[in-house]
Write a structure and sequence with these properties.
Distance between the termini of chain A: 41 Å
Strand content of chain A: over 45%
Order of helices and strands of chain B: EEEEEEEEEEE
Shape of chain B: globular
Radius of gyration of chain A: 14 Å
Order of helices and strands of chain A: EEEEEEEEEEEE
Strand content of chain B: over 45%
Radius of gyration of chain B: 13 Å
Largest interface: A-B, 26 and 30 residues
Oligomer: heterodimer
Number of strands of chain B: 11
Distance between the termini of chain B: 36 Å
Largest sheet of chain B: 7 strands, mixed
Structural class of chain A: mainly beta
């Protein structure tokens, strides 16, 4: 079946440090790839997405490139802020008769300190 | 423009009671998905519904769990005879018509605690 593997956390960084959160996937079809962010006590918010190979999703300084050859969608940000502290989820969906259900990784908690 | 609304935000039930979780999708959305997040884990798909139809319930436990999305009113996730293992956060997401890369909008979740 389809699955998503992402690096375990927590990841602790100093403000303005470079961030990479690794994500790889296994899929039987051609998935769309997503990064969602969850702040404490809140639901998930879409951070960025990519729908085909070599697409780059970007938002709020975060980027991720859909790499079909390595089945990866790593999240990066050049300079993190304290406000980026949250849990980040990599996910995939494949459009089927069952709609766009999402398969999630286990999440990576990011803590950014001053 | 209200987003996806879930209520209650927090729900405490004793073992053996019933839990009813409600989800009102975004305006204009007719597709609803339910996910469960166990402590320290990612979200797991439970069920996908359109108005009055269950499309995919492959992630639903075979017993005690049911879901509906009536023509009028919110979608309901119902858990009968709750057990401690049902304690989790339950999230609802809604979308417009499915499509490649279609975005799902999530509610804030219902945190169920079974005591």
């Amino acid at each position: 079946g389809d699955s998503v593997t992402q690096m375990e956390g927590p990841v602790t960084l100093s403000e303005e440090a470079f961030l990479t959160i690794n994500c790889t996937y296994t899929a039987t079809g051609y998935p769309s790839l997503f990064w969602y962010v969850q702040y404490p006590g809140e639901g998930l918010q879409l951070l960025l997405k990519a729908t085909k190979a070599d697409d780059k999703g970007s938002n709020k300084g975060f980027e991720a490139t859909y790499r079909k050859e390595t089945t990866s969608f790593h999240l990066e940000k050049g300079s993190v802020q304290v406000s980026d502290s949250a849990v980040y989820f990599c996910a995939l969906s494949i459009l089927t008769g069952g709609g766009n259900k999402l398969t999630f990784g286990t999440g990576t908690q990011l803590k950014v300190e001053l | 423009n209200a987003g996806v609304m879930q209520n209650p935000r927090h729900l405490v039930r004793r073992r053996g009671q019933e839990a009813r979780l409600r989800c009102s999708p975004m305006k204009g959305h007719s597709h609803v998905y339910w996910y469960r997040q166990l402590p320290e884990e990612g979200l797991k798909f439970m069920v996908y519904l359109q108005k009055e139809n269950i499309i995919d319930e492959s992630g639903m436990p075979k017993e005690r769990f049911s879901a509906e999305f009536p023509k009028e009113g919110p979608s309901i996730l119902r858990i009968q005879q709750v057990v401690r293992g049902d304690s989790a956060a339950y999230f609802c997401a809604s979308s417009q018509n499915p499509g490649q890369g279609s975005e799902a909008f999530f509610g804030q979740g219902t945190r169920l605690t079974v005591v």
